[in-house]
């Protein structure tokens, strides 16, 4: 992909230092809080076309916004994974010390991507993968090549789950976590199905919170969180509550401050821990995707869901048919806003 400035985008001079050439296009060490200042400082004369880089791995140029992460994906899965993991560690270094010192987990979201790409990522050290559709996850996780080549793989389900698809999801080999429990009834169904499976280990689950208040998003109201977690802990012995998850609104302008949806999830965890006497470091936060995972980590995320930055842009014309559980307006809106 050619950069807006001309030449190969993965080898463009960084605007902060014209003589410096870096693999993914610009300096990712800039913190998200410096985004507005540095974008302004690197702008062209009198606000004209200029260049700026921010902590999200973006550059601003004469033709608008482009993502350094998408360039690294074009160079191969291994290169992209190294780039993302480096950016994860940079974000960890910027995280305030009063936050729980939990090493963030990278979930590589492989939706619509072939088994060979999962195997390639696994070969480069990635172990945790995420999928949005039950049917696609079941088929991919059951793929003989993945089963034989990826013995330590862990699957997270990160899409909306309706009760009629619970049994199918519980049949997924190497299912490690369900991140999207959004009701007590769903928790009960998952608990019952996991019990029938006879697994010796409890299934790890997160409770999904609708932090943005958008009707197009699934998840509990923040005010429903404590009661739902209490229910899981008391009534669902086959489930292990491990954290909170949110999608949040998209396109937040960091020059206006931290993403308010991430701040809501932090507040929900604080209230939950206080009322149920749970240490904060025992409640993970799953927030942040390809466009904002560094900012999410900076403010406290312990689980980021990154897809297109690792595997490249998706061709939705080739994706499997939607699960019956996801053929509704809410889920359609969520899945088109890529991880």
UniProtKB/TrEMBL annotation:
GO terms for molecular function: pyridoxal phosphate binding. The keyword Transcription does not apply. The modification N6-(pyridoxal phosphate)lysine is found at residue 111. Coiled coil: none annotated. Residues 1-22 are annotated as: Disordered. Keywords: Pyridoxal phosphate. The keyword Flavoprotein does not apply. It comes from the Eukaryota. Residues 103-314 form the Alanine racemase N-terminal domain. Signal peptide: none annotated. Pyridoxal 5'-phosphate (PLP)-binding protein, which may be involved in intracellular homeostatic regulation of pyridoxal 5'-phosphate (PLP), the active form of vitamin B6. Belongs to the pyridoxal phosphate-binding protein YggS/PROSC family. This is Pyridoxal phosphate homeostasis protein. The gene is PROSC.
